[in-house]
Structures are given as structure tokens and as C-alpha cells.
Hints:
By secondary structure, this protein is α/β, with parallel strands linked by helices. 49% of the residues lie in helices and 8% in strands.
Amino acid sequence: MNKEAKDIFNFKETSDACVKCGKCVPVCTIHQINPDETTSPRGFIDLLGAYQKGDLELDRNAKDIFESCFLCTNCVSVCPNLLATDMVIEEVRADIAEKYGISWFKRAFFFLLRNRTIMDIVMKLGFMFKTCALSVDAEGRGLKARFALPMIKKGRLLPSMAKTSFLNSYPEHITPKKQPKQKVAVFIGCLANYNYTTIGDSLVEILKKLEIDVFIPKKQLCCGAPAYFTGDTNTVEYLIRKNLDYFETFMDEYDAMIIPEATCSAMIKHDWEVFCKNNNHSELIPRIQKLLPKIHMATSWLHDNTNLKELLETKGKKFDDLVTYHDPCHARKVQGIYQEPRNLLAPNYPMVEMSDPNRCCGFGGVTMQSEKFYLAELAGKPKAAMIKDTKAKYVSAECSACRVQLSEAMNNSNVETIFKNPLELIAQALR
């Protein structure tokens, strides 16, 4: 072990608090597809305690185990001691990154997330030359790999690419003709900015209908979630500082910053503060805490602070298309948001619940979608089967990471259901 115990995050404290009751085991996403005690929450915790005591070397076997967690937080929600297994896994991944480094393609990706202008150019080039390696899915769900690429098998369904990003498609200020009832800023998230731009289009459309003043902050950067789940603490700190400095220049003027992505919302609302506490950036915590009351997932804020539901009931179109709702881990389990999007969809669409809407889809982060994609595939299969059983035309979730994972899982299982963000369905009902 390269580090002294005093220099290691206090994993032993969490390990000592675990009573080994086993309630976490049956709900654990990785344990459901790889039923081994080492890949269960109490197994992770026990091994981390041994690592801090010096009884476990952080070798490649331990690295493989700790990188197999999906960070779904199912274990946290059932733990009698509320042990934050996801947090300790995130912390040990920083140790892994320090010891073994971060793969070149991840470092390149995180570099792009730190540099918006370069990312814009790369994504523009990707759109122009996408047909060289990718074909458009006939159902409009994304792009399919024409042939096997590094860590991407032939036929894998990948996110769409937009000709112009959401942030570059709109003016910074969109002001209604009438006196605005409220003023909001929009944090769009990377996937909605570059790949699923109809999410942002739909959000703007809804806000216009509600006569709300919209500010689209053009200098916003990634929330930091991909780097955080991978252990790249330098990138996380950089993105938090840059975004925080920028947000502070305008947030006092707005009622809220709304985010149509569960992971981005949870990262800013929950993980920024956790990261700063665990990585000795205490000077940032008061600034983050001042910001938090204005950070909201889009459907939650629209549900609680506008008359959108009443508008949908009185003026919205009625559809016969069945909709089933999937609960993103970062929405229901981290933020307690699950009823609000359902309430906004119900006036215009017949809703049907799948057998376990709260089960993790298996996205799991950058590592799970690259080196460990076989695990993501295994986790996606049961979710695709649940969706198929509902016979729904649409499956909806306020999370583009879930969209990537579920679209691929449904593609592999020949499920014809189409994924839509709830905002896309809501905007469709208001047209």
C-alpha cells in the first residue's frame, strides 16, 4: 500500500459502522448480475476498511472490484445506518486514479469537458463525419456503429449528434412579450447540449408558454459528474470552481436555475458539497450552500412553482400513446423526485408502471460504458424486459445517461419502445 493510513479517506469509519445485516445485497445492481459477496455493498465496505488498515493492497484485482460499482445508491436507501457506500467508492476511485492513472481516452474526454470551445469544434466535426463510422438508427433513437471500434462493438447504439449545440442555438436571453412572471436560468448538461438537443428545445418551448424570462448562461461548463465517478479530482475541482465563479455573477437576479438532467442536478445539488468536504476545499462550501436553494430539476420546479399542470389539463392535447416512467437513480434516490414528472405527464398521456421503475438501468458512468460495458449490458437486459412488458410506446426519464443506456438495452432486446425525456412529451402536448 503506497499511502499511509492517515493519508487515506476514513474508509474504516464506514466499515466499522456496517452491521453486515445484508439488506443492501438484494437491491445492489452489480450483485444482481454478479452475485459475489465481494461485489456487494457490504463487501465493498469491508474491503475498504481492510485497505485503510493496510490489510489489503490496492492491486489490480481490488481496482477491478471497486470499479464494478454502478453508484446507483440503492444500498444507501435501504441501509439502517444510512452508510454512503457510493461516496466511499467515489473516494477510493480517486486513489485508484492516483496509483494507476486515467486512461488516455478518459483524459481526452475530461479535457474537452473543461474546454467548451474545443468541445464545440470536436462535436461539430463529429457531426460532419459521423456517417463514416456510424449510421442513423431507423427509429431515430441514435447512431449505430457500422463496424467494431475500440471498446465499441458493431451495431452498438450511440447518442445522436446535433449539427449545432443547444447553447449555440439560442440567444442568451429569451424574454416574453408580456411582463415575465418569473425568471430562470437553464443549466443544460453535456448530453442534452450536444446529443439530445430536443430536450433543451422543449424546455424553452414550455418556458415560453408559461411566459417565463429565460437566461441561457453560455459560459457554463460540465457539472463534473463523469470525472467525479472516475476519480479525476483535479477536473472536478476545476469545473466546480469555474462554474461557481460564473454562477455567482448572475444567480441573484434569477428565481431558479433549472436542470433537465437528474445526474447534473444531483451533482450540483449534492455531490459538489460532498466532494469539497472530502477533498479539503472547505472555503467553497458556504458559496455552494448559498447557491443550492435555487438549483432544481426542471420537472420538479415546473411542477411546484408554475401552473403547468393546470395548463396541460385545460389546453393540452390528449394522446392514446402509453407512457411508462423509469426513475433515474440520481432523481428518485438522491433527490426524492419521482412523482412530479408523472403528475405532469398524466393529464395528457395514459400512464402504465413497469414492474420495478426504481431499478437502476445500469449506465454506471464512463468506465462502465467503456472497459466494463459487458456489465452495463447485463444490467440493461432486465430493464428492457420490464419496458417491453408494459407495451408502452414511450419510456420516459429525466436523465440522458439513462437514455443512452436504455436505448441500447432496448435495441439489443428488439424492444420497439422509444425513449423520450418528459419535457419532450410535455412540449408535444402543449403544441
